[in-house]
Design goal:
Beta-Lactamase; globular; Enzyme I, Chain A, domain 2; 4 domains
């Protein structure tokens, strides 16, 4: 069954649309299992009934007409039990039902497998046979495997609206398409899409148009000529090594590039107004699909040749493209498959209205930056047809994690009203910037900011923050094409220390690895979050660590507001090694080079379980502790925060995290050590209430959230928050914690601070 399964996967991946996928499945499964019939029943999201959506063996006209609930028939039995049903004498089963409109003869054998995606039964895949037959374990496993493959495709079709068009073609889906993602930075962004693509990726080329048809044709011809030279050169190099038959493949490549083959189709699309890159990717992808659907194994394998040739030409096209200054509209919605800090750096901040990344999750690095900038951000929009959105009207709902494409005027007006309400609230909050950061009973709470980008410095200063709890030094490294020199770093750090002086600035040493890889220093690992990252990298490369610490200390001369923070600490040996290097730098600068510098305070991040249980040992060695709740939550719950499939399991209110936070603050207090929280939980108004109740008196967060957090804390007493945190820490699950917390904070003055404003059409 391996070969049929491989072929099905190959053809499904190459299918042009959802309808074609269904037809491929029923055709190939029927043939592979040698049965009389194969059918797919899909759950209609509206009627909640399972509808016959594709078949081989039943009357074609019955598709879309035969439906059943979970209480009807054997298909309903499979759906209700969410497990396979394998019957040799199906007609004797009490749930057996006959549907004459299908034209089927009464069958004896039945095997049905549920199609499940994220615990929801989306459909049922069925094979039937008139003759009595017991499907064996390998056949059942085959059908289950195909069902699993089909599940993701159905989920995508549901998100894009294709499923509704099949299960309920008469339904009015409205003028706009809504795509789900992960809400990552709150707010409403309305504007036009600007698509950022990856190099030499055929499937990542946006469908753009150009008015300069002669220029695009010239680019294409130059790229073809370069590719043809590459192919001829490779053929000559391999003469005498490959057989004559194998060398003929190079001639096939050359013929494919001629005007009457691929080249001709591309030229036709360019003449229709498409850019050379867009036209080339469209033609090549269609040919890949064609080859993948061929019956001949030899011809199916040629799909990989077409793909390889396509990438070669695309690479030349991208290299020969005329250098032009990218124009960003006044209302830019930045969209890409895997956005990173350098992409943001190219967009004028005042023009950026929203961020959408196909990959990533709420706590990906890009999401954190989006929150720091106060830009509505949606991550993990895996169903978004992002390459087709260039220039389209887009709404980004950072509260619910939705992307609306080509919204109707009515919908856009509703979201514009929500945006207006948000602006009113922001103006009201700004009026509180000079108010003291105290609870209702007068207890002072230090509210600091997390920063790293130059664009969020202005916002940080406007909030009246008491200091910088986390300066992400890796961001300047991302914006370079090489490691910045010590002097380049000194200038960057000096600017930050001066801007915030006399307030303390906590600079984290280089924290790369995980989901933060430098383009010029790539780290490739199977499990990067458990690998070479944070302090592990810089201790293995002391030249990087020493240069950075020297730059920090030199930058602090005559200002003396520097604090140094060590990330990803998992043992006291790491702290001891880092402290020895810091002491060495301080001695070199003050004794040997004559700098007037105060020894900066040094702290460690508590962000892995090992550090939680060594809090006291770590606290004895350093001046302060800072809890990074993003990574700590990830490691405590064993949830990859960048994986959309498990994003729902990542929860800052998890009882295990609350208990860990309570343990950390108690251990730090026992030694009289300062302890703060610099993770995203601190910037969540409800999370801030919990943290203060647990004993934390310094919180560091995105500047965009600081005034909202301050306003909430000013309305609650320390006793209220302490009692609430104690009660919630004893609850068994995160859902209960969040619900009880919301209920406890239901009061008029807090409602608009805790929840985003909602308008008509935004639910």
């Amino acid at each position: 069954m391996l070969e049929p399964l491989r072929r099905i996967v190959q053809e499904v991946n190459a299918a042009p649309d959802f309808r074609a996928v269904l037809e491929i499945i029923v055709e190939r499964v029927k043939a592979a299992m040698n049965t009389g019939m194969c059918s797919i029943y899909l759950l209609d999201p509206v009627s909640k009934r399972y509808i016959l959506s594709a078949t081989r063996g039943l009357l074609p006209e019955s598709v879309g007409k035969v439906t059943m609930s979970t209480e009807e028939g054997l298909v309903g039995l499979v759906a209700s039990r969410a497990e396979p049903v394998n019957l040799e004498h199906a007609e004797t089963h009490p749930r057996f039902a006959y549907f004459p409109e299908t034209g089927e003869e009464r069958f004896s054998s039945f095997l049905g497998a549920p199609i499940i995606h994220q615990r929801e039964v989306l459909g049922v895949l069925v094979v039937q046979q008139q003759e009595r037959r017991r499907f064996d374990e390998s056949e059942e496993a085959f059908l289950i495997t195909v069902s699993a493959q089909l599940a993701g495709v159905i989920a995508h079709a549901e998100a894009t609206g294709e499923l509704v068009r099949i299960t309920a073609p008469e339904a009015d889906t409205g003028p706009s398409a809504v795509y789900p993602g992960i809400a990552s930075a709150p707010g409403i962004g309305i504007g036009h899409a600007v698509v950022v693509s990856s190099p030499a990726d055929l499937y990542a080329v946006p469908k753009r148009r150009s008015d300069d048809i002669p220029g695009e044709l010239e680019q294409f011809r130059r790229a073809l000529e370069k590719t043809q030279r590459d192919v001829r050169s490779a053929k000559n190099d391999l003469k005498g090594i490959l057989s004559t038959e194998e060398l003929e493949m190079f001639d096939v490549y050359l013929r494919m590039l001629e005007d009457h083959s691929l080249g001709g189709e591309v030229i036709a699309l360019i003449n229709q107004g498409f850019t050379a890159q867009s036209a080339w990717s469209q033609v090549v992808i269609e040919h890949i699909r064609t080859f993948s659907r061929m019956d001949s194994e030899y011809l199916r394998e040629r799909a990989s040749d077409v793909r390889d040739l396509g990438r070669r030409v695309l690479e030349h096209l991208q290299q020969t493209a005329r250098p032009t200054q990218r124009v960003y509209p006044e209302d830019t919605i930045l969209i890409g498959e895997d956005l990173a800090a350098p992409h943001l750096a190219e967009v004028p901040f005042e023009r950026l209205r929203g961020i959408v990344s196909v990959r990533g999750s709420h706590n990906s690095h890009m999401a954190i930056i989006g929150r720091a900038m106060g830009i509505p951000t949606v991550m993990g929009a895996i169903d978004l047809p992002w390459t087709e959105l260039e220039g389209q009207r887009i709404i980004v709902d950072g509260h619910l994690g939705h992307i609306l494409v080509d919204p109707s005027p009515e919908v856009e007006r509703a979201f514009a009203e929500v945006f207006r309400q948000e602006q009113i609230l922001a103006a009201d909050l700004l009026a509180t910037r000079d108010e003291p950061s105290i609870t209702a009973c007068g207890t002072e709470i230090g509210l600091w900011v997390n920063t790293g980008l130059r664009v969020d410095t202005k916002l940080s200063l406007e909030t009246g923050a008491a200091g910088v709890g986390l300066y992400r030094t890796e961001i300047p490294f991302f914006l370079q094409e090489r490691f910045p020199s010590e002097e380049e770093q000194r200038q960057i750090y000096r600017d930050q220390l001066q801007i915030y002086a006399p307030c303390p600035v906590t600079m984290r040493t280089l924290d790369i690895g995980g989901d933060k890889a430098l383009p010029y220093f790539p780290i490739s690992e199977e499990n990067p979050f458990l690998g070479w990252r944070g302090i592990r990298v810089t201790l293995d490369h002391p030249e990087i660590f020493l240069a950075q610490v020297r730059a920090m200390m030199r930058a602090s001369e005559d200002i003396d507001n520097l604090r140094i923070l060590l990330p990803m600490i998992s043992s006291v040996e790491e702290v001891d090694s880092a402290l020895a290097l810091i002491a060495r730098v301080y001695t070199e600068l003050t004794v040997e080079e004559g700098y007037r510098i105060e020894m900066p305070r040094v702290g460690v991040m508590i962000e892995v379980p090992a550090a939680v249980y060594q809090t006291r040992d770590l606290a004895q060695r350093v001046d302060f502790l800072s809890v990074g709740t993003n990574d700590l939550t990830q490691y405590l719950l064993a949830v990859d925060r960048n994986n959309p499939r498990v994003a729902a399991l990542y929860h800052g209110y998890h009882p295990a995290l609350l208990k860990a936070l309570r343990h950390i603050v108690a251990e730090a207090a026992a030694l009289g050590r300062e302890v703060s929280v610099c993770g995203e939980l601190a910037g969540d108004p409800m999370g801030a209430v919990l943290l203060v109740g647990l004993g934390y008196r310094t919180l560091s967060m995105s500047a965009a959230n600081l005034l909202r957090v301050k306003a909430v804390l000013r309305q609650l007493t320390l006793a209220e928050m302490t009692t609430l945190a104690a009660r919630l820490s004893e609850l068994p699950d995160a859902t209960s914690v969040k619900h009880e917390l919301q209920q406890a904070l239901q009061r008029p003055g807090l409602e608009r601070l805790l929840h985003a404003p909602r308008g008509r059409g935004t639910a």
